[in-house]
Amino acid sequence: MEKRRSILSKNAHRVLRIVAAVLLNLGVVFSAIYILFHLLEYYNPHSFIYANMPWLPIAIPILFILAVLVYDLIMLDGGFKKHHFNKRRMMFIILCDLILFAAISVTLYLKTCTTSLVEHNTIEAYTLPTPITTPAPSLPPAPTADAEAPDTGDEPSAEETPAPTEVPAPSEAPVPLDQKFPEKFSDPPVVETYDKDNVVETLSDGTEKALIYTYRGKNAAVDVYHYQRGKLEYQLADIYVRDVDCFRTNYSLSFRKNMKTQIYAEQVNAIVATNGDNFNSGKIEDGIVIRNGAQLFPEGGQRQTKFTRDLCVLFADGTMRVYDCVLDKIDYDEILGNFPRQAFYFGPKLLNDDGTSRQKFNSSLAKTNPRTVLGYYEPGHYALVVVLGTREMVDYNGRNRGNGKSPGMTLSELSELSEQLGFTAAYNLDGGGSSSMVWNRTVFGHNDRTHGDILAVVDP
After folding, report:
1. Predicted TM-score of the model (pTM)
2. N or C, which end of the chain is more exposed by having fewer CB within 10 Å?
3. Distance separating alpha carbons of residues 332 and 295, to the nearest angstrom
């Protein structure tokens, strides 16, 4: 039998072997990176990969396929002599084929899930309802001395003049937001930045409080305070608004297009902003998500009856209510009937209804972490809090500032802090690497990953 001749030279075979080995090793390395990110991003495993390396899941099977094709080419060209093509090499090729099959199967599975999720989170797939209409305030007109009486043709005598009706004291009716806290606002706006070393107050527990930023505008006023006790650091934005729509959310409906807090904030010209609840993480299967008066989940304005997380709702009259998914009967119709402007679905609820701290929470994320909190004092008066943790911190321009020395807080510690700050209600938003606050082109927090949304204060 005539011996088959190789078409390619020995040098070509050597080059092909090197190329195949490089492709195979790259496939193994990329697979390891992919698995590593899934392990590290335990809460939202896809967010970093699809936001920053969307090519990675596709590159892995392509590398393995190319490696196997190159090896097949060498085999077909007689590159492996009979005495070299032993059992070990045969097992190696079978192993490559198995890895290829597994990589393709996993990628197709993830691609299918991702495609489904992206379709669920894109604007085209959502039929956004007409924003929930907020009624105009219906206030009784104030009585005036020169108001005209009905013309009856006769002038009433002194004896016929009825006694004036007693008008209820203003304290008996809620004061409209646009009439509260007039001393807090300014037109034109006033902006001041201060050195955080200028301590304005030392609290009873030794915490140093410093005013570092002030904004006074026509419809919104913000004071940002820096708190430090030992290594623990956190910042609080003390917020007053004349209209609840000064609270705006900016968001992405696809986690492939997620951004960092400062980018979202720039788009809405935010005075101050923090990360939100990251509703588009792919983990939401029930509950209600409302952004700027439009219901995003469930789709198409469908009625929701299932709640497995605590819910926070900011209503058009400025009130904020945090619902315990276990203890409270959350009524979808009642919530929609009170004209909600924002509804967050992450949690947990941090305070009891009387404003005292809690010890049990509807969350498995109770360990020490960086934290973001939405606090509520009364209608028109709110707060945003960001607590530093031990993760890396990234500044406004993307520079890594190293690991934070602050230890972070457990949910119990966060609840106690919320009570100490005087909140009547408080809600835990997404934390960890997303936890960040932006004001005056400054980032406080970790900011080391993209996320789905922000809660911002604007002055329209």
Report:
1. 0.66
2. N
3. 12
